[in-house]
Amino acid sequence: MYRINSLIPTNVMSVLLLMLTIVSLPVVAEKSYVVAGTAYNLENNQLAYRELYTALDENKSVTVDYFSPEGNLFATKTLVYQGEFFQPSFELQDNRDNEYIAAQFQGARLVLSHGKSANVNEKVILDNARLVIDAGFDAYIQMNWEQLMAGKRLKFEFALPVRLSTIQLEARKIKASESPANDKEFGADWVHFRIAPAKAFISFFADPIYLAYNPNGKFLMRFYGRSNLDNNAGDPVDVRIDYEYLN
């Protein structure tokens, strides 16, 4: 969602009208959003939620607000970019069921947290030097763009706070025809990537995610796969998220 060199997006289309129609005026007045993501449920293609990103502030943090189709704020995530761009610390609070998800550095230690209400479990990850965290996958793709474009398959460890563990994933460039994120009518010049578990036996338990990028600026335009949020019933949901950028 952000350039790794400045974390300031370039204008590719306006989302001002979108924001005014889905968010109450007090919320719009309080925050200045620069990126909007619209998530559709893959089962029925119905709007699932919208996510709005603020600009990087003086504390190197970004706020992501999640809104229901009715325009109600139901979850908020804070990302803090103090170290590597692919390793933002984050906290996510889902107010629907008081779920808390986090990955935070304490010195050299990375603490993964997950739970509901006061029942939060934690695990310390000491071997975390190259670990990719949450939205950091976008920076990882940008940082390794040339290698991926050349056809190289790249393996990396990814944090899974919900499971208090990590998983090894593999990223590779694929043809547009191989990606369910491909749109024949829009984004003909998009570049497509597939991220999936690196070990074959894990693939039986986790589906790949597909990413579509605008090569002019390396902007993430579409995400296709398992959401980082569950649905109102607490079940995992697969989504297509279309991203728009605003100055």
Total number of strands = 14
Q: Separation of termini? A: 13 Å
* Poorly predicted tracts of residues: 4-26
Which structural class should the secondary elements be placed in? mainly beta
Mean pLDDT: 88
Q: Give the biggest beta sheet.
A: 14 strands, antiparallel
Supply the number of helical segments.
4
Q: What percent of residues are in strands?
A: over 45%
Percent of residues in helices comes to: 10-25%
The ordered string of helix (H) and strand (E) elements is: HHEEEEEEEEHHEEEEEE
Taken from the alpha-carbon principal axes, the silhouette is globular
Radius of gyration over alpha carbons? 17 Å
Molecular structure report:
- The longest helix has 8 residues, at 136-143.
- A hairpin with an 8-residue loop joins strand 4 and strand 5.
- Helices cover 11% and strands 46% of the residues.
- The protein has a 14-stranded antiparallel beta sheet.
- The relative contact order is 0.16.
- With 247 residues, the chain is mostly beta strands.
- The chain contains 4 helices and 14 strands.
- The radius of gyration is 17 Å and the shape is globular.
